[in-house]
Design goal:
381 residues; alpha/beta; Rossmann fold; Dihydrodipicolinate Reductase, domain 2; 2 domains; 9-stranded mixed beta sheet; 6-stranded parallel beta sheet; 15 helices
Length: 381
Amino acid sequence: MNKIKIALIGCGGIANAHVQGYCELSLNGLNVFDIVATVDVNENNAIEKSRKIGSFQVKKPKIYTSIDSFLSNEEVDAVDICLPHNLHHVIATRFLNEGIDVIIEKPLGITMRAARMIIEAANKNNRILSVAENYRRSIDNRAIWWTINKGLIGKPRIVLWYEAGWNPIPWGWREDKFIAGGSWVFDGGVHLADLDRFQLGKEAVEVYAVAKLYEPLKKGVKITVDDMTMAIIKYEDNIVAQWLWTRVAPAKHISNRIIYGSKGAISREGVRIIDENDEVKEIGMHLLRTRMLNDLDKGIKNRWFPANIYANTFATELYDFYRAVIERQKPEVDGLEAYKDMAIPLAFYESSLLDKPVYVKDIENLTIENYQKEINEKLGI
């Protein structure tokens, strides 16, 4: 099995999940990566990740505190970028222009224009660009895709996603618009947008949203991203989604995602179907998983769940990247997929600022960039 030389660029919080993903692959006999370096401006972070990798890899990765030093001393096939959003376009384009394949944490870029720069660099240099979109890779979300595609809930009509709770603690750099680009409805919203697009097999057409900042100061920290967003998304084929995300809803937490069709509904609990007698039949998620695994084409099953890895979605996304690099084929979530995912939550901000619906194509085509303009200007994009 051919190995590819890879380096971990950025060794903060999310990098822990990536390291665990590499470990899971190793434990299951998929020793396909040789992690040669960990790179972070915080040397302690780079040391910590190198130590963890050394616990399952024969040789500990070398430690670097700058990209320049790393590139001067190492030759790699690929890099795994786990950095704040405002650095994605800077670092990814540099590696792509060096002829190095890239897997990068979502969202692809801090703005649509930044993301487009990365895609163009990948295309110009004929490099593999994969975006670490792991939600769709969970066995439950694969089972939801399978259930919808088997027609068990009929024709999809409505998607509801709501995540409302309260958190008074500031969340580091993610509270800064010029570093994060937006709140969790952007950072995590790309996950939900990707799930909608993947499971429905449809593209978003139009968005209307309201975004608010109710608590601009948390524990003395100035907040410059929204803390509540409500949105309506119109998808192709007459499907409508309603999203609510907020962290300023005290005392009563609610969380769920439901897809309603003409014959039933599916959520994380399983599927409820109306039978020919208008009675409700329930199939739990455990049984749906089993039915899906028994029904899937062998090739798809092996690609989705290599070495029967079902629980660690970071491991399966990394292996998908490995196969894309070795086979020189499109990864499951490439730059274009991630670009379309980003356009949906960024359309929320544009719609809210303009106080009117916006077409998602206008976001993708950079026709509307009102919200993103000051980010682009600040970062010189």
